[in-house]
Amino acid sequence: MAGELKNHIRKKIARFYRKRMIAPAALLVFLIILYLVLPIRSLFNPVPYTDLDSAEARHKAGTNYVNASLSNLYFTGYRKMIFGQTYGYYYYSVTGNECTLILLSGKTCEQGVPSIEKLDFLARITEKTPSEDRLIGLLARDLSWNEAGLSKNVSSFILNEPKANGPVAVLLKITIFFSIFFAIITMALNFLYAYFPVTSPPVRRLSLYGNAMRLLNKAERELSTLPQLATEDMYITQNFFIETAQSGIAIVPIKEIMWIYKYSTLHKLLWHVFTISYTLYITTTHRQVIKCPKNQKSDIDGIMDYLAEANHDILTGFSEENREAVSARQGQGAFLTKLTRLLKRSPEDLGND
Description:
Blueprint: H1 8-19, H2 22-37, H3 41-44, E1 47-50, H4 55-60, E2 65-82, E3 85-95, E4 98-104, E5 115-127, H5 130-143, H6 147-153, E6 157-160, H7 161-164, H8 167-195, H9 201-204, H10 212-224, E7 229-230, E8 234-236, E9 240-245, E10 248-253, E11 257-269, E12 272-284, E13 289-295, H11 297-310, E14 315-316, H12 320-344, H13 347-351
Parallel strand pairs: 1-2, 4-6, 11-14
Antiparallel strand pairs: 2-3, 2-5, 3-4, 5-6, 7-8, 8-9, 9-10, 11-12, 12-13
Helix pairs in contact: 1-8, 2-8, 5-6
């Protein structure tokens, strides 16, 4: 067994963080598939759109968002209203035999100027609604055009600027961007922790008690020469409590443990209790709280008994008296730490406060 436990902590840390790479990797693959399959890619990389382009052709090609650069836009005299508020102003542009409707925000068109000679804007290509179909008839009447002929030549799709810059589009951008950023950063950190365990949080937390690398090496040596007590994923060596469970990794010097107690959890469906699991709680001198869930009662009782024997200052069992005692000792410890740091400062430093 001694050979099996050689570098056991490092191996468990590596395995733990390799497993944690799976979820962000799956999220990243999912987002990439969405980007490639759905037309949202044009949201991040809008396609150029000029007077020579067709909104319908662009939409059929899978383009939803375009960087439009159009000339000679004319106000129809009609606005789009939502809940009594002006959402946009309808313009039209004629290129060859095709007429395209364009919905602009009030800021872009200065609240409906009669005509715009040249305009560059971000737009989303959307299909005409029934109300926009009726707008064609009204526009034909206003311009004394033939309604049937105009309807035939008007594109079935419009360029919608407010929708491209609205809260839904902005929220979608932010969500996708931060999801990709989160997935990449999480994968990179888990990769770092898996292949360089000394950089992982469980090892870094040892710096609270001294030199983290030395303490890790000492814990590995003690564990490899057979622990004094071992359960499925918890170990006690001469100087350390070590947990290497699927839920997390913990390495704590026994002399730094202040309080230990267990908590039971009923696993049931409706009124039927299937199992009871126990969680070991460990509170340290540096306010760390370590939870070791889903253990057997006998295992936790053995761990608690051994720790209490190894360090007689450890408070055992949950009670209000123990909680208050721990709070008082932690408060006193924090005060002493601040006082020690203050006394170590030079007179020059004190004079600069």
